[in-house]
User: Fold this.
Amino acid sequence: MRLSQLESTVLGGVWERGEDARLRLDNAWRQTPWGHWVPSNAWLANDAMMELGWETGEEHPLAEVLDSFERQLGIPCAFCAADSRFVLKDGVVRVAARMTRKRGIQGVREKLPKKIETFFDGVPTERPKREIPADAAVLVCMPEGALCLRLGPFPKLFNFIKQLSVTNEFGERTRVLASNARHTPCLIPVDAGPLKIEAVGFEDDEDVFDPLSLPGLPNEELSVFRVNADDMGQLVATRTLALGQTYRLLAPPSLHVPGHGWRVVSSGWHFLEVTLTAANQWELEPTFAALGLKIGESGPAIRPSPRSWPDAWRWTPRFERYAAYQIGREIELQVSGFDADFEGECKVVVEGVGESRVLELGVGDECTLELKDLRPGRYVCGLYHSRAAIVPEHYFFEVFDEPLALPSSEVTIEIRDKNVTSAGEGLHTFAPGKPSRIWNGSLGTLEEAPLVKGPAGWPVLVRWAGLGRLMRSMELRDDGTLSLDFLRDWFDKPRPYGRLHVGLGELGEVVLEHEHVLSVVEIHELLLSKVESSNWQDSRGVYKHLYPLWFEPVCAYIGHEPEFVPLEDDPPVHVGMIRLMKTSGKGTMLLERRCRGLVVMMEELDDEPGEELKDWVDQKCLEEKTERAFFTDGRYWGRRMAQSRRPLKIVDLFEVVRNEEMFDKFLDDFGGI
Amino acid sequence: MEVILNEFTSTEASEERIADLLRADVSASGSVLRSTTIRRIQMALGGNEEVNERIVGVCERLEADGDFHASKGGVVNATPLRLIDVGRGRYRVIGSAPERWLRQILPGELKPGLIRELEVGDTGELERAVKRVKGVILSPEAWAGFEFSPEANAEWLEFLNGRLTYEAKTGQMDPEAGWQAFVIHQDAWRWLHSVDGLGLWRAWMNGYFRWVWSTPGQDMNAKAIELTQDEGTRTCFALARAAGVAIPAHLESHGEDVVFWIEAWLPRAEYRYLRLLSKDLKRDGSRVEWTFTRENWERVYPSLNNRLRIEL
Assistant:
């Protein structure tokens, strides 16, 4: 027998028979220093194997090693598997990694340059496919117990993927713009149940995007989140909580929660946030014990001191946050929670830009470090405790020699007009503290939506002064831009005149004067196509139905802002009425909207209207303060000036659109341009 | 590199110190979750509940004063440097840059505080310094937004009536929402249910007032336009001015200062103006008490009177 045994393994059968046998009473066995047993006649090879000087990762079949010793010594050899200096797996033995490390603070110092490089330059693990890295979709617990999915970054996501969707257990989908999660993570509020993440439009194409399923939080046990420096609770598996740390606990509805301070959050889940301190640990211990949690040793922490706060928070490619300081500053760091019982039990190493300093900390658990004369570059401050149970703590930071970056107050708006006929096309800078009118033209025909640039997060108020109401309160995005894309939808409806105010508070406001006038050629094309395509004549006399189908577009094409007028008094014959409006600017602030004429919709216009109807229309013209009235059945049009005794001169629209000369005359008589 | 080990000493947690730390953190971050920046400062100051509460309060104050801009999702954003010229070489400093940054950038003497003030002899040097960091110098009127906000007078009412002709819709007022009409009764303005008032209506919905303007004397079914909170409060003053009604306001002398109180919500621009030039403000329901130096009050009163017709 060459491999050591446990006493219970050797004597198990004997003990089962009720016999009180012990190996120490048997001269055939002897105990190893690690508690196992080997045959008395075997030579224990463990110490000699340590002397062989194996490198890290070097593996050897145990049988071959022992054969070699036996050949040299001529006696049986044995190996104790309980010796923690070795790792034995499937008959292959190697020296444990920790045994080949350089010991003590010297070993730590030698590794720090590599650690700095890995922290600052380490990139997320390369994956063969464009799949979601495991850490790109995790559940986090935000303040007040809000559970969120932290999604992204997906730097390798195909550009043609525009949206990602998150589907919960009830099949409800939340969509996220892929661009928001491509380079930085985004947070999406979610329920505790399982989630599925897919690329919208590519749900069945795993080669484009491998869908990812997240199991959600367990329904029977407590979920523990450790709060990081960004105030984000990260899910941890441990049930031993460290002093000095803040935790967020989420308990499912089925779990009884003891103690005080729990709040019910969504769907009956209970939430508690607690910072473990020496002062409250005894009070919390019974509550935690009932939940299967233990309070462990304090963990050391290195934090920036309020006396020298970082000048910038920056991110590594793996989205780990670190502090950056401008050159020339004296940097003060707070070190706490190291709990040293004797001087030198805890050491601090500051390493960076080819320099290294080691300091032994005194008795106690908090102190400050003052760092001076640092050259530009990357540094780490590491704290190492003699007690192996206390994990090392690292504070990475950078010293930079660029000027401090303040947000700029400059705001611009870029307008690109494909017609290049509008006044003021191009880039405009806002005048702080006052409004400025910078542009006029047709906002409905812009090549690209206007683009506003300014300080990130700054509020933008977009207000339309004109027919209809548009009021949008928005913010500039993280990159300080905002495209006014929604204007495309707004100008889907014909809007002949209005002013668009784009305001950024004290940083200024610009007014874009919109006027959309169709050219005669455009009007002709539109009318011709309308005449050739519509079958409106089937609805003669049903004015409410006919209005949107025929009269509204025709009146809009020829330059009016038509409004359907519900008639309250009975006309002498069955007619409908349209008010033709015109909006125009009046001064800097006011708009004026006046009635420029009335349209009388009739079933047939093949003859002069009756006198009674004409009197009734004259009265309507008086009420609307206009003199013009157009009689029409849709095809035939006649113009009447109020109180006029001249008969109507009736023209056929179908003929007009096919005759250039008549068309111009028609526009002069009936148009609103 | 020199590393010195010192004994731990705690940092004072005065409002002024907290404000500067919050500004430093928001500036260092650019954009950051409000809860994150608050927690960082709470951890750095290692304070008790009272200090933690103070940090939250100071953060709210800095957002209200314009040092930070709050945006959706509980995010606070760093803001550019804006200097407001309050006269005699003195400037209010608004922006997220902490004092250490400002001392590097700006000439003159910086007075720290929740609201910071700068005193400069050479304004030319200051203008160059502000331009270098792409900041801006504004008058109090421009900061308040007087250029964008019309006075509460007959022209404002004419503007609203003009909007009725092109923006109005029916069905703006849900009868179940408890709409109140603005009326003038016994030389004071009142809000009454179930009457046809002077055209201005309001209803409390989801934690704020919805405001609507319709033709005076008409009921809730009339065509109406929706107003913003700012437009609604401005219209109250315009209607009161048109009716010749005095706004309940009062002025008291307190040593070197004067205390002005008014029992009405001010429109946004006038509120920003008073807030900038006041030493302090206290709220009690709709009543707000403002403390001014006599010098600033001399400047504030004519503007208030012109714009809102507040007579004392």
